[in-house]
Amino acid sequence: MSDPDVDSSDPDVGASDSDVDSPDPDVLVLRQKLHGQDGADYAAILRERLPDRNIVHPATPDEQREYLRTARVATGFELDRDQLAAAENLELFAGVYAGTGHLDLEAFEDHGVAVTNASGVHVPNISEHVIGSLIAHARQFPRAWDNKQRGAWQTHPVLELQGSTVAIVGLGAIGTGIARRLDAFGVETLGVRYTPEKGGPTDEVYGFDDVHAAVAAADHVVLACPLTETTAGLVDAELLTSMPTHGILVNIARGGVVETDALLEALRHDEIRAAALDVTDPEPLPNDHPLWDLDNVTITAHNAGNTPNYFDRCAEILAGNVERLASGAELENRVV
Question: Which PANTHER family match (predicted)?
């Protein structure tokens, strides 16, 4: 039965976000979702930024396969080898993650397809998350919330960020963003990176061989590094011992950078002040895990990367790269 409220003569009725009879797509937005946002939203933003380009977002898997045969640019989470083999005209895959460890980069290289990532898109939101976490634990907001729940009018000792020192492990785009924002709070920063000779945005820069020295010289520690052979289990009992007892640990890196059992012991025995964990090991954290029961821990379930502006920032990178691709210029954030 037809819907009486729908005008079937309207040419837009029944039309999807794509039309397989349209010209070959300049940019194919894959059928993938992120942070509660649909790919159709991403496509709409790209159309605003690239009004002269044919941006398509297929409504069905069949449409996606058809468009993939002729698209010059595809953007989304991933493409596998079979999809790449079918993408005869593809020149660029624009990943919407900062990391590319989930992609078969060798396959892209074999097919002559350039790959870019979304490095930098998380800088504002994750930096704000880190600063909020530091302030929350320095001012003991979790304790104040608990007092409110109990109707208890109580004061409690606090810390100030101003004049403190924060060690930032990892000086990529996110670590750099954190350092620059902490500067506004009068915080001295110490960076830890693989190539300390490159310097960085922090007041001092250390190599991973000297991570204990950096942590011992700091009040608080922020983890913003990738999970690698070097960083796996980096924050163990020894490194936690290098932190001061008033220190706050913030992890927005990967759960595996921290030895969870060692952290539990340090928190239970007040060897550090608190931990703000956006990532954990294991993840998701089981609901009976003892970390949930500690008053000096906040857990945000990998939410630091959540932002309503994610696709806007991805679109900014991609729109520029579409123009660079046309002119033969070097692509921003190219990894292959």
Answer: 2-HACID_DH_C DOMAIN-CONTAINING PROTEIN, D-ISOMER SPECIFIC 2-HYDROXYACID DEHYDROGENASE NAD-BINDING DOMAIN-CONTAINING PROTEIN
